[in-house]
Design goal:
single chain, about 130 residues, alpha+beta, five-stranded antiparallel sheet, 2 helices, 5 strands, about 20% helix
Length: about 130
C-alpha cells in the first residue's frame, strides 16, 4: 500500500534561526510536530485524549541535517506515517527548501500509543493511518 505524503508550508522567521542565520537544529522538531498535528488535526487529537483516553509520545528519533534553511525560506514539510504493530506509529518527515533537489532535513520518529496512566495501549483504527 502506498503511503500518502502530506505537505505543510512552514515560514522561517528570524526567531527560528541561530546567530548565523540558519534554522536552529531543534526547531525542525517543532516543525515536524506541527506537521503531525496538521495531518491528524488538533480537534481530533483533543478528542482522542478526552474521549478515547489515548495520546502519542515520541519514543525514538533519527534525524539528519543536510542543508540548513535560512530566514525568509518557506519550507515544504513532507510527512508520511504508518502503523507498525499494535502500539507504534512511524512518522517520516522531510524539510525541503525552495527549489531544493533533496531534503534539507530528514527525520524518522517512532511514537507509541499511551493511555492516561502512561501505559502502552493498542492503537485504535484512525483515518490518518
Amino acid at each position: 500500500m502506498a503511503l500518502t505524503t502530506h505537505h505543510l508550508d512552514v515560514q522561517i522567521y528570524y526567531e527560528d534561526t541561530d546567530h548565523s542565520g540558519v534554522v536552529y537544529h531543534a526547531n525542525y522538531l517543532k516543525f515536524f510536530e506541527r506537521a503531525r498535528e496538521h495531518v491528524i488535526g488538533t480537534k481530533e487529537l483533543a478528542r482522542m485524549w478526552h474521549e478515547d483516553g489515548i495520546g502519542f509520545a515520541v519514543y525514538k528519533i533519527e534525524i539528519g541535517y543536510f542543508d540548513g534553511a535560512v530566514f525568509g525560506d518557506t519550507l515544504d514539510i513532507r510527512s508520511t506515517c504508518r502503523k507498525e504493530g499494535d502500539y507504534k506509529i512511524i512518522w517520516t518527515h522531510e524539510a525541503w527548501r525552495p527549489q531544493g533537489t533533496k531534503a534539507a532535513v530528514k527525520a524518522t520518529l517512532e511514537l507509541v500509543c499511551l493511555d492516561r496512566n502512561k501505559r502502552l495501549t493498542p492503537i485504535p483504527h484512525y483515518d490518518f493511518l
